[in-house]
Amino acid sequence: MHQAILTLVILLLIAQTVLAQLLKDGDYRIYYGNYQAPITHRFFTAKPNKGDGYVKTYPREDSDYQIWRLRNKSNGKVTLESKGARGKYLGLRHSGAHPGNYLGVVHKPVRFRITRKFGGPFTAYEFAYPKKVDGETLVVSHDDSDGKEEPYFVNFAIQGTQGVLGAYKMSRVSD
Asked: Among 34, 60, 126, 135, which is most exposed with the fewest C-beta within 10 angstroms?
């Protein structure tokens, strides 16, 4: 009996380790759009300033501000550092973690929970805030609700809300 429980615990630990690193550490572009029409792709782009900057979605540019350095942390959590704004991470602006609040490029990283969604050419990843807020899970999304033209701000949205795009594609950037 004890050996069976020990084996089960070991298998669970191995599975947790495998699942924790869905993506390897490295540089990525984070985007959304029709995978068959690259012209529709919109990329997370850091817009730093002297304080905390912001993140918006733009068409592809040859810019380090669209490259994010992913680092795996413990328990399936990751941080995302802007390559163009070194030392600044995708994180909370002064308004905090609430639905609709914009994310920024800030000095204090957030350890987002990462989850793989879909598969094959549709593989995308969801980045969730590590703590529940008012009993809800917040995911990274973008705000296109005002009907204005792009670029859109990257913000928090409640997971599972209709119309919320909470899963993004990750394209590895080669050195």
From this structure: 135
> Which residues make beta-bridge pairs with 29?
171
pLDDT at 35 exceeding the cut of 80: no
Alpha-carbon span 170 to 82, nearest angstrom: 14
For residue 158, give both structure tokens: 């409640």
Determine the 3-state secondary structure of 74 from DSSP: coil
Q: Could you tell me which residues come within 8 angstroms of residue 57 by beta carbon, excluding any fewer than 6 positions away?
A: 31, 32, 42, 43, 44, 45, 142, 150, 151, 152, 154
Q: At 152, list the tokens.
A: 């859109």
CA atoms within 13 A on the CB side of 75: 4
pTM, entire model: 0.81
Residue type, position 17, single letter: T
Q: Which two tokens stand for residue 171?
A: 């394209």
